[in-house]
Amino acid sequence: MKKAFSEILVEWQKSSGRHDLPWQGKRDPYAVWVSEIMLQQTQVSTVIPYYQRFIARFPDVDSLARASLDEVLSLWSGLGYYARARNLHKAATIVSSLGKFPDDLDGLSSLPGIGRSTAAAISVFSFSKREAILDGNVKRVLSRVFAMEGYPGEKRIEALFWEKAEALLPLIEIESYTQGLMDLGASLCSRTNPQCPECPMKDCCEAHLSGRIHELPQAKPKKPLPLRETDFLVLKKGGKFYFERRPEKGVWAEMLCFPERKEEEISEDFVELPGFIHVFTHFRLKIGACLIETEKDRAGLWLSMEEALSSSIPNPVRRILEGIRRLSP
């Protein structure tokens, strides 16, 4: 009799999966939650140092709830997708007021920033609940092993993926099974360079057996990302730089940023800084900046280079500051 998908996966995870990640084995919903939020759309190798710094500063949900949003965003700076950090802070205040983490799928899913799959992962690793996860890596594994057609993300196809993910759940060893799904999708069953000869599913993977491994999952045709433009006014006075806080909604919400420049603000004495393009999920942003040494005062926040680099600033602002530092004698 052939082994079941879940049995093969559990055996592989125990022998070849990841066992030394800093959030593993704790059964602490706070630690699991922080790691799962950071891992959304971000690779494990990138997440680990951010996670370690974050947990060192905020070891529990109460300390995170008491912190200012600016401090949270500062520690998150460079990790991207800053709405995750804002939702993390909001959810922490809710959980702290409740006195404990919800231990069911509905309660977890009601918290800001926690969707169905993230809630399931927290339920599995913290409370040993038998729940199905379905992130991008899992969809890729299921799509290939079971030759599931269609574009992941479409409503009808998503329903089929959830149905398959739930049908495959084992009755025991749910933690090893869930971690195995994550590990397999993140390692051997990668998007562009799958290591099929080493995969434990090679003898039952329909995509591999039919020579369709690079066709699945089907990719939705991409539209060209629109290009937008902005120009920053980098004001420097006495070794300090001027910053404004962004609005509560929109790009880089509530983070510190240079003001966007207006033509009437440009003096004759300025230095045009190298421009570059920053890519977001839904558009590209062409960024220009000019540096002006000024003696004029302006109401707002003036920060030294080091103060700014340790604050909650977006990556493009960090890039501009580091470029200025390199140019400085």
Describe the protein's architecture and organization.
The protein has 329 residues and is an alpha+beta fold. It has two domains: 205 residues, Endonuclease III, domain 1; 101 residues, Nucleoside Triphosphate Pyrophosphohydrolase, CATH 3.90.79. It is 43% helix and 13% strand. Strands 1, 2, 3, 4, 5 and 6 form a six-stranded mixed β-sheet that branches. β4 and β5 form a beta hairpin. α2 crosses α3 and α9 packs across α11.
What is the helix tally?
A: 14
Based on the structure given, which CATH architecture of the largest domain is correct? Orthogonal Bundle
Q: Report the major sheet.
A: 6 strands, mixed
In percent, how much strand structure appears in the residues? 5-15%
Distance between the termini: 73 Å
Mean pLDDT, as a whole number?
93
Question: Percent range for helical residues?
Answer: 40-55%
Net shape:
globular
- Say how many strands there are: 6
Mind telling me the CATH superfamily name of the largest domain? Hypothetical protein, domain 2
CATH topology value of the largest domain: Endonuclease III, domain 1
The total tally of domains equals 2
Whole-angstrom Rg:
23 Å
Produce the secondary structure layout.
Blueprint: H1 5-16, H2 29-39, H3 44-57, H4 61-66, H5 69-76, H6 83-98, H7 105-109, H8 116-127, H9 136-145, H10 155-167, H11 174-186, H12 206-209, E1 227-237, E2 240-245, E3 256-257, E4 271-279, E5 284-293, E6 301-304, H13 305-309, H14 315-327
Helix pairs in contact: 1-11, 2-3, 2-8, 9-11
